[in-house]
Structure formats: structure tokens, C-alpha cells
Design goal:
This protein is α+β, with helices and mostly antiparallel strands. The chain has two domains: 182 residues, Beta Barrel (Elongation Factor Tu (Ef-tu), domain 3), CATH 2.40.30.170; 189 residues, Helix Hairpins (Orthogonal Bundle), CATH 1.10.287. It has four helices and 22 strands. A six-stranded antiparallel beta barrel has the order 2-12-15-14-13-16. Strands 1, 17, 18, 19 and 22 form a five-stranded antiparallel β-sheet that branches. The chain has a four-stranded antiparallel β-sheet with strand order 3-11-8-5, with no helix packed on it. A hairpin with a 3-residue loop joins β20 and β21.
């Protein structure tokens, strides 16, 4: 590692002319210096950004002063809470309503499930009974009823015949007497009444017999057959529709569960967002508008909206809290040529405008290998700040680094070099006063001087334009 020299803000001239147009080569200290602007950036920051889950309107009602020192617990930013508080009230009511709806839907589903099974069982019993009744009527009871009415009619006929026969016998028996006694007349009258009743009963039984065979039994057959068909159809319909009702009720139950879950989530999101409406300092430190990101302090268009009555942006950093314990370093973005000449651990100075008398030592901690989107390379510097001056984030400084040095280098003014197809060359003065073009190998270069690695020796004289 070459020896590093601490630089002041005023550059040092490295060569002197022996006389105009001629330069005697002497080994001297040669170094290259890189100077660029840098910004004081804290090593530790807390970005302030709003990442709400549901709410989108954050109107600023309080805003700490940019760059102000704050104590732990101080309110940095506060927002208008009226609208979100009203929304929270509505969300709580909606959740209570959906919870009751869910409970009622669950009860309805349980009742419907149980009632559906009972209805299906009843339909199956009705279909079974109707089928059995029709089958029994067709196979047994119709014939038995026909036989029964036939038998009853036959008995009525037999009864009438018996009553008629008995009346004939009585009449014949009593006719043998010349004188009919009063008792015999009473018996004959009773028998004649019995015959009349038997005749009436036979006529009624005949009517009943005919209606039973021609009307009642055929109608009952139709009714039982229709009942069997209707109960079978009702069973088929019930087995198809009743499970559908359960499915529909289940869909309503799932919808009620979903609505309850969504209302619950919505309320939770609002309650979480409500906590964002007052942002406090977690510790003592500074409050800055804008953000320190990737070594830059940026504000852009944010500052126009960051005021009481304005709206805070969402999902992007718009302010920064810097703890009082955060160390301040310097961050710079240099061009490609400068970046190529720098390596970590290089040392140098920082100068503050207005306090050029202060020598602020620093060290290059890191230089990026790849450029930023703007083509510049980030340099991170560690600084030892003097206790006699207050440095705050965002302050700027001019950084000077010794990128290369050699204590006994051969160096010439860059303007003395010429480039030809054969390479670099200088014009030297010979002992006889004549001159010749001498090829040289060029090394590093600073603003006006170039190092010569070979081709020149101490004591030689070169010509300069």
C-alpha cells in the first residue's frame, strides 16, 4: 500500500519549469487526486411510509417541522380521523349483523336438514302404503268385496223367500179354520210386515250391490291406483328437490360465512389502519421530510403535498426519522472515470463550505462495482467529524481522495506528450543542443501531469509546448 498524504482543499503544484519551453526531469512526488461533492447520510434511518390495508385517505392535521429535533414519543405526523372513525362504527355494525345472519342461517340449515329427512321418510312411507293398499285391493279386497255384496244380496233373496214361504205356510194353515182368531191375524200381519221388510231390504241390497260393483269398487280402484302413482311421483320429486333445498341452504350458509369473514377482515384492516393515524418518534432524533434511500436524500414532488391539509402519499417513503445515535457518513455518486480510480480504504479529507480551515479526515469504505440507473457509481465514506462543529443529515461537503501516489516518480506535463502510431513520445533536448522524439510508456495522470514509467531518466531535458 503506497503512503497516503492528507490533502488540503487547495491542490499542490507538482512540477516547476526550469525555463519556458524546457523542463529538466527530476524524481518527485507524484499523485492523483479525486475531488467530488458528497452528502452527509445517516447510517441508521426509519423510513416513514403508509402501507394501509384498506384506507386510502390520509389528510394531514399535524406535521413536525422539517429537520427538527424530536424527543421520544413526540407526534411526528397526525391525520384526520373523523371519516375512518365513522367507517369503523359502520364496520362494527356490519360485523354484528353478519354474525347474527350467520347464526340464523346455521340454525335454518340444521333444521332444514333434519326436516328434510323426516319429509323424505314420510314420502317413502306414503308411497309404500299406497302401493301396498292398491296391490292388496287389486289382488284381494276387491274380489272379497264383490263376493261380500253378492253374498249379502243372496242372503237378502233367501231371507225374502223364507219370509214368503213362511207367510204362505201360515196363510194355508190358518185358512183351514173356518174362523180366524185374533191371535192368528196378528201373526199373519207380522209375517206380512216381515215379507215387506225383506222385499225392501232386497231392493236396497240390490241397489247397493249394483253400485258397489259398477261404481264404488271401480272408483276405489282408480283412487288407489292414482294414489299409488301420485305418492310415487311425490317421492321421486321429493328425493330430487329436498336435497337441492339443502344444497341451496348450504350455499346460503357458505355465503353467510364468507360475508362474516369478509366483514371481520374489513374491520380488522380498518382497526390496523387506524393505528397509522398518529406517527410518533420511537426515540430522540431528527425528523426530515423526504427520504434517505440508497445513499441519496430525495424529496421530489412530495414536499408540495406535505403540509397541513394535504394528503400523504401511500406505499412510498415521504419522511424519515433519524435516531440521535445514528452515525453520519458521507455518500457520493461519481462518474465512471473517478470510480475506476478509487479503491476501498483510500484516505483523504472533507471540506465544508465556509469552514475550509477544518481538516476532516475520512476513509473510502466502499465503491460500487455497478452503476446506478443514471450511470454514476455510489461511494460510501467513513468520516471522523470534529466535535467543534454540528453536522446534520443532508449537509454537503467536498471530498478529496489520494487515488495514487509515488514519491520518486518521473512525471512530465501532459501537454508535452504526443501520441503516434508507435505510442506515446516526448521531445528531448540532446547534449549538442539538438532535439529528438523519444518513445515513452505513460502511467497514471492527474489534471496537468502524467507519470512516465519508462523512456526518460532524471537529468534529461524535455521540450514543452
Amino acid at each position: 500500500m503506497p503512503r497516503l498524504t492528507v490533502l488540503h482543499c487547495i491542490p499542490v503544484l507538482l512540477t516547476t519549469l526550469a525555463q519556458a519551453g524546457e523542463l529538466t526531469i527530476q524524481p518527485k512526488l507524484f499523485f492523483t487526486q479525486q475531488t467530488f461533492g458528497a452528502t452527509a447520510i445517516p447510517a441508521e434511518t426509519t423510513r416513514i411510509r403508509l402501507e394501509p390495508k384498506a384506507w386510502a385517505d390520509f389528510e394531514i392535521t399535524h406535521l413536525a417541522t422539517h429537520g427538527s429535533k424530536v424527543a421520544a414519543g413526540d407526534v411526528l405526523i397526525a391525520f384526520d380521523t373523523e371519516d375512518i372513525d365513522n367507517k369503523l362504527t359502520d364496520a362494527n355494525r356490519a360485523l354484528a349483523s353478519s354474525e347474527l345472519t350467520l347464526a340464523q342461517t346455521e340454525l335454518d340449515f340444521a333444521n332444514l336438514t333434519e326436516a328434510t329427512q323426516l319429509k323424505l321418510d314420510a314420502l317413502r312411507r306414503a308411497a309404500r302404503n299406497a302401493k301396498e293398499e292398491n296391490q292388496y285391493f287389486t289382488a284381494t279386497r276387491r274380489k272379497a268385496n264383490e263376493e261380500h255384496v253378492d253374498h249379502v244380496l243372496k242372503r237378502s233373496k233367501e231371507t225374502l223367500e223364507n219370509q214368503l214361504e213362511e207367510l204362505r205356510q201360515l196363510t194355508k194353515m190358518y185358512a183351514a179354520d173356518d174362523l180366524v182368531e185374533e191371535t192368528e191375524e196378528i201373526i199373519l200381519t207380522r209375517q206380512r210386515d216381515a215379507v215387506a221388510h225383506a222385499e225392501f231390504s232386497l231392493r236396497m241390497e240390490q241397489l247397493d250391490h249394483d253400485r258397489t260393483l259398477k261404481v264404488t269398487l271401480p272408483r276405489e280402484a282408480e283412487t288407489l291406483a292414482a294414489g299409488e302413482s301420485e305418492s310415487a311421483l311425490a317421492l321421486t320429486k321429493g328425493e330430487a328437490n329436498l336435497p337441492r333445498q339443502i344444497k341451496l341452504q348450504k350455499i346460503q350458509l357458505e355465503a353467510a360465512k364468507t360475508a362474516f369473514t369478509r366483514d371481520k377482515e374489513s374491520l380488522a384492516k380498518l382497526e390496523t389502519d387506524r393505528k397509522l393515524f398518529e406517527i410518533k418518534a420511537p426515540a430522540a432524533g431528527w425528523f426530515y421530510l423526504g427520504s434517505f434511500e440508497d445513499g441519496r436524500w430525495s424529496t421530489g414532488e412530495l414536499l408540495k403535498a406535505l403540509a397541513v391539509g394535504g394528503k400523504a402519499p401511500l406505499k412510498r417513503s415521504f419522511a424519515t426519522f433519524i435516531p440521535a445515535t445514528a452515525k453520519l457518513g458521507l455518500s457520493a455518486f461519481v462518474d465512471e472515470a473517478t470510480a475506476r480510480s478509487l479503491t476501498p480504504e483510500l484516505k483523504g479529507n472533507a471540506c465544508l463550505a465556509g469552514r475550509e480551515d477544518l481538516e476532516i479526515p475520512l476513509k473510502l469504505a466502499k465503491i460500487a462495482n455497478t452503476p446506478e440507473p443514471d450511470g454514476r457509481y455510489r461511494a460510501t465514506l467513513e468520516v471522523t467529524w470534529p466535535a467543534t462543529i454540528s453536522i446534520t443529515p443532508g449537509n454537503t461537503a467536498e471530498v478529496s481522495l489520494v487515488a495514487y501516489e509515488k514519491p520518486d516518480a518521473i512525471a512530465v506535463p501532459t501537454k508535452a506528450l504526443s501520441f503516434t502510431p508507435g505510442g506515446w513520445s516526448v521531445e528531448i533536448k540532446l547534449a549538442d543542443g539538438k532535439t529528438e522524439r523519444r518513445p515513452v510508456k505513460r502511467g497514471r495522470a492527474n489534471k496537468d501531469t502524467s507519470e512516465i514509467l519508462s523512456g526518460l531518466e532524471a537529468g534529461q531535458v524535455i521540450l514543452t509546448p
